[in-house]
Amino acid sequence: VSTQSTGTPIFPPRISQRSILFLSDNTISAAVVLFTMVVIQNTHAEEAKLEDKVVKTTWKIDEVLENMGSIGKFQFRLVIIASILSVIGAWRILFDLFGANNVFDWSCTPEGIIAGCVYTEGKMPCAIDANVELEDTSGELGVDNFWKFNDDVVGHSIRSSMKLPCSENWKFSFASSIYFIGAFFGVWMFGSLSDTIGRRMTCMISLGFCIVQAWIIPFFNNISIYLACRFVDGAAFGGFFLIAFVLDVEYAPPQYRNRVGTAFHFMTSVGMASVAIWGVIFKEWKWYAMALAIPPTIMLPICYFFLPESARYYLGKGEDEEALKMLKKVAEINGKKLPENCQLFEEVDKKTSFKETIAKLKNGLLLRSGLINMFGWFMTSLVYYMLWFSAKSLAGDIYINAAILGLAELPGRIVAYVLMEKIGRKYTFMSSIALGCVCMFVSIYDNATCRKIMYCIGKGVSGALWAVIYLYSSEMYPTKIRNLGSGIGSAAARVAALIAPFIGDWIEISPVWPYIIVGALAVICCGTFLFVPETSGKDLPQTLEEFEKLFDNEKKKNEEDNL
């Protein structure tokens, strides 16, 4: 707008002063509106940034572990502790192999020869019917009266040092069975206890039981005390062995669980093979027993100072602060740092008691998967111990054979690791148990070379089965009942271990039908595993709802594959 000397404003044609005022008012209003919109937009952007910040500092446990570099010093230390406990567990299982082995260096006494004692090379005195009858008719103890063990081997075995009549010789063989009976109760008791009071404390309690009985055995030359100790030994094994594995897996992110589980079972096979070294070094069974009592004694204080509690256990109990403290400790050991305001956002059944969780077995999926899981454990153990009993055909030195049998499982562990990475847990299990059945069927043929080859392959297969079923069970169940779920499966395996010796006796009578029946059961087992989900690469379920999602996702995947 310009003015002349008269001061009258000059407007463009057809634009009045009122129009200018109108336009000016609307321009101001538009500017106010635009300013307001910019402020609101900036506010929303700040809120969005704030929300993004909250998301980045709120994690699941698996995400926290991955953020810390997945496998660090903390996990390596835990793997070492768990592996040592795995080796100790293997040594305890095979204690009877050299502690109560057969002793064939014996001879009939002069009085025994007169009375009718019979010596047969390669047989124990009470394995000969004439000697059993001689002891029964005379009413006297056969050992030292009618026969005696050579002085240089008397202390080599419990069988030769504990002087029992032939009528009670079955107690020596029963020692292995009572060990598995103890393990049957131990996995239930300690599995439930670990889900209630924690993994760490339960592991140390069970290890304490193992230590006590291990030191009692060599100082009491009594068969009843020995059997009682073997029962406690089995129960303790059902505690620290299974808990060490579960704790090991719970601190491993999904992509590393297979490696951690394979390392654990690899060391179990090493323990199976290395127990022969103890037998070679310590010929006297009492020194042998004391030597095997030392490792668990050393491990107890190590576990006290270095074995961590499970962060998932704390989270499952609703103790979020304790879980976060554990994760901060993991980060510190691994040389990492968690965000200042890091929070765990996984939904957990905080208000659900342990009994209420068990009551939810009625939901069907948990019950169905539990039964299938038990069946898988049962068949794993049955195939393993049937192959073990077929080792009667193997000739040679007992120490060399024991080392070979343990080492034969190592290739199976490695193959299982590769297959679990490629085709998943359940299909690896199904293919392994099918191959185990093939080995059993082929071993029916009376050919020594063929039988030994099939036996070694079968031992590798059985090693793979154990590696898969342990890992699969620990990945499938929610935190609150994870140890109990694995414990129930392990209990089913102990039942199979008790049945296997009787099947072995049946094989001597009928070498066909036992294999056919077990083979048929294995086929059924393979079929049932089609109804459980794959767990490879999945987060460990914290709640029953997350457990059910495993089945839902598996169902959706199958439907998509069918399309």
Kindly describe this structure.
This protein is mainly alpha-helical. Helices cover 71% and strands 2% of the residues. It is built from 23 helices and six strands. It has helices spanning 17-56, 61-67, 73-93, 95-99, 110-115, 129-138, 158-161, 170-197, 199-216, 223-250, 254-281, 285-306, 311-316, 320-333, 354-359, 365-389, 398-407, 410-423, 425-442, 448-476, 482-509, 513-528, 544-562; strands at 2-3, 9-10, 58-59, 106-108, 147-149, 343-344. The strands form three sheets. A two-stranded antiparallel sheet has the order 1-2. Strands 3-6 form a two-stranded parallel sheet. Helix 8 runs antiparallel to helix 9 and helix 8 runs antiparallel to helix 21. It starts with a strand and ends with a helix. Residues 1-24, 26-36 and 46-56 have low confidence and may be disordered.
Q: Average pLDDT, to the nearest integer?
A: 79
What is the percentage of strand-forming residues? under 5%
* Spatial ordering of strands, largest sheet: 1-2
Main beta sheet:
2 strands, antiparallel
Instruction: Identify the overall geometry.
Output: globular
- Terminal CA distance: 75 Å
The residue ranges in which pLDDT falls below 50 over 5 or more consecutive positions are 1-24, 26-36, 46-56
Helix run count = 23
Structural class: mainly alpha
Order of helices and strands: EEHEHHHEHHEHHHHHHHHEHHHHHHHHH
Instruction: Report the C-alpha radius of gyration, rounded.
Output: 34 Å
Helix content: over 70%
